[in-house]
Amino acid sequence: QAFFCLLLCVPWGSSCPPSCQCTERAGAKAVLCSSRHLEEIPKDIPKDAVFLKLDANSITRIPSNAFRHLSHLEELDLSRNAIEKIDRAAFKGVAAGLRTLDLSSNRIRSIPKEALLALNAKLRLANNPWHCECALQEVLWEARLDPDSVQDITCHTAPREEYVGKPLLQVLDAGVNFCSVRQRTTDVAMFITMFGWFAMVIVYVICYVRHNREDTCKHVDYLKSLPSAQGHAE
């Protein structure tokens, strides 16, 4: 009877993943999974978790809806992993309540801005091998970044060699606009495409006129030959 009472009294949502430690911090559930050699995000994180530390592991990807069931989550630490890919809906379900999100010291080169648009959390993105482009610039403009880590968002690769190794904020402060570069590239591509279509139309018209002219000449020559043929017969 005591066993069945224990099963009924202990809420299922408060179970703790075997690779983690669950404790209380200021009256809120904290799930500590630091340095546990995890290669993916545990599936059985308690639903009432408020603090979640997954730092110093070997996680490579944040899939869609990875934290959707954690509606109480306020702090999420994913720093010092091997994260390379973040899906567009990675933080769906926790965006509204999340206060801090640490993605620093990973292998992130780019991040879809859709993954961060609904976030009000303070972001840490430092020490990643960022590819400086329009998408990253938009993240910097729209996201709420931790001011202490902004200077450590450095261009690992960039469209121009002179930007490599420099803090992204410094490059932008110098007047560089990666989004306008992309817009110019798009405009040039559209111009080339339109020119190609225009050239095709001109060639078609020329061929059409030339073909009709040849047919007309043949028809005229035929008509000219008719009277002479009739006269020869007489």
From TrEMBL:
Recorded topology in the membrane:
Single-pass membrane protein
Spell out the subcellular localization from the entry: Membrane
UniProt lists the family membership as follows:
Belongs to the LRRC3 family.
User: Which superkingdom, per the lineage?
Assistant: Eukaryota
Question: Which segment of the chain is annotated as a signal peptide?
Answer: 1-22
Q: Which UniProt keywords apply?
A: Leucine-rich repeat, Membrane, Repeat, Signal, Transmembrane, Transmembrane helix
Query: Which InterPro entries does the record cross-reference, listed alphabetically?
Result: Leu-rich_rpt, Leu-rich_rpt_typical-subtyp, LRR_dom_sf, LRR_TM_domain-containing, LRRNT
Q: What is the organism of origin for this protein?
A: Herpetotheres cachinnans
Q: Name one GO cellular component term.
A: plasma membrane
**Which residue spans traverse the membrane?**
188-209
**Protein name as it appears in the record:** Leucine-rich repeat-containing protein 3
* A Pfam family recorded for this sequence: LRRNT
Sequence ranges assigned to domain LRRNT in this UniProt record:
15-51
